Amino acid sequence: MFDSKVLQLLPFIPDELVVEILSRLPVKSLLKFRCVCKSWLSLISDPYFIKKHLHLSTQSTNFTHHRIILSATTAEFHLKSCSVVSLFNNPSTLCDDLNYPVKNKYRHDGIVGSCNGLLCFAIKGDCVLLWNPSIRVSKKSPPLGNNWRPGCFTAFGLGYDHVSEDYKVVAVFCDPNEFFSESKVKVYSMGTNSWRKIQDFPHGVSPYQNSGKFVSGTLNWAANCSLCSSSLWVIVSLDLHKELYREVLPPDYEKEECSTPTLGVLKGCLCMNYDYKRTHFIVWLMKDYGVRESWVKLVSIPYLPNPEDFPYSGPYCISENGEVLLMFEFDLILYDPKDHSFKYPRIESGKGWFDAEVYVETLVSPVGH
Q: What sequence ranges are listed for the domain F-box (predicted)?
C-alpha cells in the first residue's frame, strides 16, 4: 500500500507534474494506483490521460512497454506473454500465462493483429474478439453471417481510423470456388459494435495472407492477382477512413528466385519478407508509406539447417542496434546482422510456439468509456 507520508506530500506536487509522472508508468502500476485516491482513479480513467499514456508507450524506441503474445503448440489453447526488452537483453525470460476470455480450450483461435494495445483474434472465421490483456477487458463482435461453403476463409485486419477515432476490423470473405471474382468485404466498428458492407475487394484479387497489416491509417494485404501482366501478386491497401482501395507497389526484387512474399510491420513501417533460393530470408522496409522509391533492403538472414521444413516466420521486432526477433522451428530466435550471429532466448515454463504478435501495454479499452 502507498506510504501515507508520500500521500501527504502529493498536494504540493502540481497536477501537471503528476500527469507527466504517471503517464510514463507501466499499466500494471497504474491499475494499482487507481486505488490510491478518487482523483487518481478519475485521472487514470480519463480519455486524455489514456491517449497520452498510449502516445508515450507506442513512441518509445526501447520497447519498455512492449510485450509479445505467444500461442503454444499444445493440444489445448494456451497463450503466454513476455517482455520484448527481456528477450533482447537476457538469456532467460519469464513469461506470464494469459487468461484468454473465450472458454474453448481445444479450439486454436488465430491472432489477427494488434493495434494500440488491443489484440484481435479470429473466432471460427465468423466473428472476432477484441481484447486488451493488459487491463483484462474484452469484447466479442456479432457474427459476420457469411454464406460458408467448404474451402472458404475470411481474411481479417485490425486498425485505427484516426479521423473518426474508431477501431475497425475489416473482414474479406474469400471463396476459392469463385477464385478471381469479387471478394465481399465487411467492416466492424468498435464504436457501433456492428458490421456493415463496403465496396468489394478489387476484381481479380484475393488475399492469400489471412491478416491485413496496419500502417499509416491503412490495412494492407498480400494478394493473388489473376489480371496482372507483370506479377502474380499485389499489395492491396484499404484506407480505413475513406474505405477506398489502392495498389501499393512492391520494391524491384528478384522475383524468379524467391517464394511469394508476405507482409509485416517493423518500426511502424510496412515490410515485405520472402525466402530467397531457400538459403536466405530477405526483409524489405518501406520507409515512406506509399512511396515505392522508399523501399530499402533491411536485412538478409541466412537459413539454419532444413529451411525446406521450417521457414522463418516474422520478423516480429527489430532492436535499436539492429537485432531481429523472428521464429524458427516453433521457437523465437535473434539474429544480429553485424556479426551474422544467432541467439536463442530461453523462455521459462514455455517452449514451442505456433503464433506470435508484438503488442504494447496500454489502457485502451475495447468497450469504450
A: 7-53
Pairing of strands 153-161, 211-215: parallel
Q: pLDDT tens digit string along 237-288?
A: 999 999 999 999 999 888 777 788 899 999 899 999 998 888 889 999 999 9
Residues 331 and 183 in one domain: yes
- C-alpha angle with apex 97: 327 to 316, nearest 5 degrees? 25
Q: Please give the Cα distance from 101 to 43 (Å, whole number).
A: 27
Parallel/antiparallel/unpaired status of strands 218-225 and 211-215: antiparallel
369, part of any domain: no
Q: Which grid coordinates belong to 239?
A: 484506407
Average pLDDT over the chain, rounded to an integer: 85
Which residue range forms the structural domain that includes residue 22?
4-45
Question: What is the side-by-side order of every strand in the sheet holding 324-328?
Answer: 313-318, 324-328, 331-336, 341-343
Compute the distance between CA of residue 58 and CA of residue 77 in angstroms, rounded to an integer: 28
Closest CA to 221 of 297, 174, 269, 155: 155
* Residue 57 near residue 67 (C-beta atoms within 8 A): no
Q: Kind and range of the H or E element at 247?
A: strand 245-248
Q: What residue type is assigned to position 100 of the chain?
A: Y
CA atoms within 13 A on the CB side of 165: 5
Question: If you average pLDDT over residues 300-320, what whole number do you get?
Answer: 81
User: Which H/E stretch holds residue 188?
Assistant: strand 184-189
What single DSSP character describes residue 307?
A: T
Cis before 11? omega within 30? no
Assess whether 63 and 37 both reside in one domain.
no
- The answer to whether 149 touches 175, Cβ cutoff 8 Å, is yes
Q: Is the dihedral of CA 80, 83, 89, 94 positive or negative?
A: negative
